[in-house]
Design goal:
The chain has about 160 residues and is of the alpha+beta class. It folds into two domains: about 1-30; about 35-155, Immunoglobulin-like (Sandwich), CATH 2.60.40.420. Helix content is about 15%, strand content about 30%. It has one helix and ten strands, in the order H-E-E-E-E-E-E-E-E-E-E. The chain has one helix at about 5-30, and strands at about 40-45, 55-60, 65-70, 75-80, 90-95, 100-105, 110-115, 120, 125-130, 150-155. It has a five-stranded mixed sheet, with no helix packed on it. Strand 8 (about 120) and strand 9 (about 125-130) form a beta hairpin. The longest helix has 27 residues, at about 5-30. It starts with a helix and ends with a strand. The structure holds copper (II) ion. Copper (II) ion (CU) binds near residues 115 and 118.
Length: about 160
């Protein structure tokens, strides 16, 4: 092999090496949170029968994650009568002590939901506490607020 040819091969190898390095650093840069999409919005069930916060607002394409930090199981049930943000028919168990569930929303609208263990819908599809037939009575004798919440999705549909 002539020295000119060797130098040509070395230059080619150097160029290939730079290409590979450039590509791998670009891949690494994209390894952040969820492909550059905004971070998921967190909704927590604390050590009681409620969703915190009750109301959240997200943008189209954003994800909502529910986490159950209570010692009891809870559920997330879609209130289909008012749901305009998609994901109809949701009815999932949120297991006690750290169970999670996530939904990504692709349409602007509202996603009202409730826990079917600690809330129910009245004749007008409004969440109400189950009452004496299944509700949890507080020390004041009230059957409490219905366990429910709402996700509002804003942005281009
Ligand atoms: Cu519940």
């Amino acid at each position: 092999m002539s020295s000119l040819r060797v130098r040509g091969c070395l230059l080619l190898l150097l160029a290939l090496g730079m290409l590979v390095l450039g590509f791998s650093s670009r891949v690494r840069a994209g390894d952040g949170s969820d492909d550059g999409k905004p971070a998921a919005v967190q909704i927590l069930v604390p050590d009681e029968d409620r969703f915190i916060p009750f109301a959240v607002t997200v943008h189209v394409g954003q994800k909502v994650t529910w986490t159950n930090n209570d010692a009891d199981d809870h559920t997330i049930v879609s209130d289909n009568a008012f749901n305009t943000a998609g994901h109809r028919g949701v009815n999932v168990l949120l297991k006690a002590n750290g169970g999670t569930f996530s939904l990504r929303f692709f349409h602007a609208g509202v996603f009202p939901y409730y826990c079917r263990f600690h809330s129910m819908l009245d004749a007008h599809n409004q969440p109400k506490a189950p009452g004496p037939d299944g509700g949890i009575q507080d020390p004041n004798g009230n059957y409490g607020t219905p366990m429910s919440g709402v996700v509002t999705v804003v942005g281009d549909d």
